[in-house]
Amino acid sequence: MKNVAWIGTGVMGKPMALHLANAGYEVSAYNRTFEKAKAMEPKVHAFKSIEETVKNADVVFTIVGYPKDVESVYEEIMKYAKKGAILVDMTTSSPSLAVSLSKKAHEMGYEMLDAPVTGGDLGAINGTLSIMVGGDKDIYDEVYPLLEVMGKTINYMGKNGNGQHAKLANQAAIAGAISATAEALHYANYHEIDMNTMLNVIVGGSASSWQAANNGPKMIQKDYAPGFFVKHFLKDLKLILDEKGPLYLPVVENVTKMYQVLSDNGYSEDGTQAIIEYYLQELK
Question: Which residues are catalytic?
Answer without folding.
Answer: 167
